[in-house]
Write a structure and sequence with these properties.
85 residues, alpha+beta, 5 strands, 25% helix, Molybdopterin synthase sulfur carrier subunit, MOCS2A
Length: 85
């Protein structure tokens, strides 16, 4: 079985990767697995989502860790950390 999640990218990630897309993953996949699947595409995806890069994630509009499990129809957003001043 698989799950399809709607990806959304914000701020500098949107500039590099676009607004978003649908991603199909094996059932039981995590946020970290989704990030790795995107990185495995190489190029700009590998650079923008590299392991050393500070990238935050939100699952269905709630901050989450990379261990969060994805369900079919979830919305997964990636964005850089926000600073204020």
């Amino acid at each position: 079985m698989t799950v399809t999640v709607k990806l959304r990218f914000f701020a500098s990630l949107r500039e590099k990767l676009g607004e978003g897309e649908a991603l199909v993953l094996p059932d039981g996949s995590t946020v970290g697995a989704a990030r790795e699947a995107l990185r495995s595409r190489g190029g700009v995806h590998a650079e923008a989502l590299a392991p050393g890069r500070a990238v935050r994630s939100a699952l269905n509009q709630k901050m989450c860790t990379e261990s969060a499990v994805l369900a079919d129809g979830d919305e997964l957003a990636f964005f850089p950390p926000v600073t204020g001043g």
